[in-house]
Specification:
Chain lengths: 427, 366
């Protein structure tokens, strides 16, 4: 028995606790050095870009700063207007002072050759305003007081209160307007949040469509994967290996090849339709539209994401001893009851993992809907890509992406609350 | 033992054969009748077809040929859940996502038994295996022995008349196993249930059963009460498989008055009881239990054949002495003697003479 009052020491009399800490510190340092490259990689390729994206979704300096491309000098722009906006509350009718400030700022824009940049920023919120800026800036030097008449003379749209609301919003680099836009909202002339007109409501509809299609795809993969996974888990190894190869085959072929082959199969002049017409099941004018619409997106994505459902299910089912079902049967349960009450509940962690995986992948899927989705099979990620590449409204793209990310995180949190993340079995 | 006629048979296997692959028979021509209330053990080496028989009885495998009857009814076409047979699996197969009480409730729920009835039965079954306090726990929170008890309670809670157990104690340590052996036999006896029990362990088979069926290669080698099995093995497989056994090889010289004279391979003659030898000239394997070998001349019958032996090794084992001797060219011949105050301790190298009663020395198939 050791004396508890005395601190324990090592053989050579040093305190045991200190020795233990020192020994562990060395091991910890070594472990840290080993993961350092991965940590750096994740920081550079994951955490930093996401941070950048989140930042961009609330920060846009198109109407506040000009950066010279060659020298890199940054000059503030639209300062006079910003001062006027600060002095007057939202909804104030722009007066002579406001137009004088605008005229002065237009002169600065012209000197910096930046009217396009400022116009683009306003154009995000009110289309058609970019050309007003470039036109006005060209004649900015010639403007004379009273500025209000002079500018309205150039284009009477300069009196549009929505334009002034848009400029007020853009006069600060930090804004939530992109988030509003991402959920089909905007600020009206008086500065309060309203829905955008019906013909411009796209994002909420797309979010809903993305959500519902992803749910549908998750459900379809589940329905298809469950029996396959069960077969894989119960078949003798010889046969199950072959089946496993068939399941994994999609992983080994390029996504593009697979998507194109779906096109070949499913388009209206494709193999499937030709066969059905050839067999007389369909008339030549009744060919099924299975491509370039929602059906195309659902079919191709279900196929592509199927392995992500099969593998977690398989790994869970393989661990379920067949004697459980036998025990249930011997205790008097029909095979259906044995499945429902004994087998199925034990596969729930696999279902959860597979569904979470497939759903998250589906929500962010881009290439397949872009290729086979047509007009109404596009998902939110296609719109994000559109804003990244075509309209160059990166802030809006970032806001949309951030909402998507928030949705996925919410889902993850819900999963954790309902099933528990430690129940997740991925393979 | 009472004589068994087919009208008091509860479980019957009639000429049952089973093949998994269509090429080899795993169970060959099995005939077995069990009366109600019997505790029957299937004992045999690995792969001899014990589990297969149990699975056919439970309904998880179909017999390739032959008929299995339960209480006079053929059950070949009855699905497992309608057979009403309780079963204890080797790995217990307690449902991991249910509590102990829910596990026991399951067979009652599928039988549509009312809630209050269910609770009473669950309580009674858990108390029976002294697990009453554990109803709220999950199987993973129990020790192996406790899980075993729960599995037993679950197999009994719906009051089946027939309970099958496939090596239910295989995973337990020796002490716990002995305790459970006792409890299982007590319960089976108290409840009057019929039990088919599968084990590898011959001690278990001998101590627990009313009758033991020794399996080898898909065939029942002998079906007999434990004492008969041990003292009167029907063939050399059973003699070898059950308990410790000495064998000497030789040829039958003559059979007369229920005594077979066997000439051992080194030329010596001994008297045996003929079991499955019938005519002179046949090869035979003679089997003698180590504790029936006698080297004290005064305890042998006058005129009994004796053999010269040389002591090779003496092993002190506490309650018994184990002496290894060389006799008739066999130097693995064992003699067991009780550690009594007047018992002789044989020194290695000593020359002795050994003998036995003719009825303890059985001439079996070669
Ligand atoms: N599902 C099966 N498919 C094919 N062969 C099987 C199957 N189950 C058992 N066998 C074969 O049947 C033979 C008997 O098996 P069984 O499980 O009945 O033996 P056992 O006596 O229970 O052995 P153990 O003591 O090892 O449990 C073995 O040769 C085994 O390989
Ligand atoms: Mg077995």
């Amino acid at each position: 028995m050791t004396d508890i009052a005395q601190p324990l020491t090592t053989a050579d009399g040093k305190p045991l606790k200190g020795a233990l800490l020192r020994a562990q510190a060395r091991a910890r340092r070594r472990a840290f050095l080993l993961v350092l490259p991965l940590l750096a990689f994740i920081l550079i390729t994951f955490v930093f870009p996401i941070g950048q994206m989140l930042y961009r979704s609330v920060y846009n300096d198109g109407f506040t700063w000009h950066e010279d491309v060659t020298s890199g000098d940054r000059t503030p722009i639209m300062t006079n207007l910003a001062t006027w906006f600060e002095a007057n509350p939202p909804g104030t009718e722009p007066d002579e002072a406001a137009f004088a400030a605008l005229a002065a700022d237009l002169v600065t824009l012209r000197d910096l050759k930046a009217p396009g940049q400022a116009g683009t920023r306003i154009n995000y919120e009110l289309s058609g305003s970019r050309s007003m800026f470039t036109k006005a800036a060209r004649s900015a030097k010639k403007l004379e007081p009273p500025y209000k008449e002079a500018i309205l003379e150039l284009d009477k749209d300069w009196g549009n209160p929505e334009l002034w609301q848009a400029m007020r919003g853009a006069s600060s680099s930090y804004t939530t307007n992109f988030y509003l836009a991402a959920i089909d909202r905007e600020r009206d002339a008086s500065g309060s949040v309203t829905m955008v007109p019906e013909n411009r409501q796209v994002y909420v509809k797309l979010f809903t469509r993305t959500l519902s299609l992803s749910l549908l795809i998750t459900f379809l993969t589940f329905i298809l994967a469950y029996p396959i996974a069960h077969l894989l888990a119960t078949l003798p190894l010889r046969h199950s290996n072959l089946l496993m190869i068939l399941v994994l085959l999609p992983f080994w072929t390029s996504l593009l090849v697979r998507t194109t082959s779906w096109m070949v199969l499913l388009q209206s002049q494709g193999v499937l339709n030709d066969t059905l017409v050839g067999l007389g099941i369909l008339g030549d004018d009744g060919r099924l539209q299975l491509m370039y619409n929602r059906a195309g997106t659902v079919i191709s994505m279900t196929h592509i994401l199927l392995p992500f459902m099969v593998l977690p299910l398989y790994s869970v089912m393989r661990m379920i001893n067949p004697s459980y079902v036998r025990a249930a049967r011997s205790l008097g349960a029909t095979s259906w009851t044995a499945f429902r009450r004994i087998y199925f509940p034990q596969t729930v962690p696999g279902i959860g993992a597979g569904a979470l995986l497939v759903f998250i992948l589906a929500v962010g899927y881009y290439i397949t809907p872009a290729l086979v989705g047509g007009a109404d099979g596009q998902l939110i990620s296609n719109l994000i890509a559109f804003h990244m590449q075509k309209s160059l409204n990166w802030s809006l793209a970032a806001a949309l992406a951030a909402l998507l990310l928030a949705g996925v995180l919410l889902l993850y949190w819900l999963y954790d609350r309902l099933i528990g993340i430690d129940n997740l079995k991925l393979g | 033992m009472t004589t068994r006629t087919s009208n008091d048979a509860f479980v019957e296997f009639e000429r049952v054969q089973k093949s998994y692959d269509g090429e080899t028979l795993v169970v060959k021509d099995l005939n077995l009748t069990m009366p109600k209330g019997e505790f029957l053990t299937m004992l045999g080496p690995s792969g001899s077809g014990k589990t297969t028989c149990l699975m056919m009885l439970a309904g998880f495998e179909t017999a390739t040929h032959g008929e299995i009857k339960l209480d006079g009814r053929p059950i070949n076409n009855i699905p497992p859940h309608k057979r009403g047979i309780g079963m204890v699996f080797q790995n217990y197969a307690l449902f991991p996502h249910m509590t102990i009480a829910e596990n026991l409730s399951f067979p009652l729920e599928v039988r549509n038994i009312g809630k209050s009835d269910r609770e009473a039965k669950i309580k009674r079954a858990l108390d029976m295996v002294e697990m009453g306090a554990f109803g709220g726990r999950r199987p993973a929170q129990l020790s192996g022995g406790q899980q075993q008890r729960v599995a037993l309670a679950r197999a009994l809670v719906f009051e089946p008349e027939l309970v099958l157990m496939d090596e239910p104690l295989g995973a337990l340590d020796k002490q716990l196993r002995e305790k459970m052996q006792f409890e299982i036999t007590r319960l089976a006896h108290d409840l009057g249930i019929t039990v088919v029990y599968v084990t590898h362990d011959q001690t278990e088979a001998l101590t627990m059963s009313d009758r033991v069926a020794v399996f080898n290669d898909g065939v029942i080698q002998q079906l007999a009460p434990p004492d008969e099995l041990y003292e009167q093995p029907a063939n050399s497989f059973v003699a070898q498989f059950i308990g410790e056994n000495n064998t000497l090889e030789g040829e039958v010289q003559e059979i007369r008055d229920g005594i077979a004279v066997v000439r051992l391979d080194d030329g010596e003659l001994i008297d045996c009881k003929p079991v499955n030898v019938s005519r002179p000239g046949e090869r035979t394997r003679v089997s003698i239990r180590p504790e029936r070998v006698e080297f004290n001349k005064s305890r042998l019958k006058a005129g009994a054949h004796t053999l010269k032996a040389e002591v090779m090794e003496f092993i002190y084992m506490g309650d018994i002495f184990r002496t290894r001797v060389r006799v008739a060219g066999n130097d693995e011949f064992i003699i067991k003697t009780r550690n009594a105050p007047d018992q002789v301790r044989l020194e290695p190298g000593a020359q002795i003479e050994i003998g036995w009663l003719p009825e303890d020395c059985r001439a079996l198939d070669a």
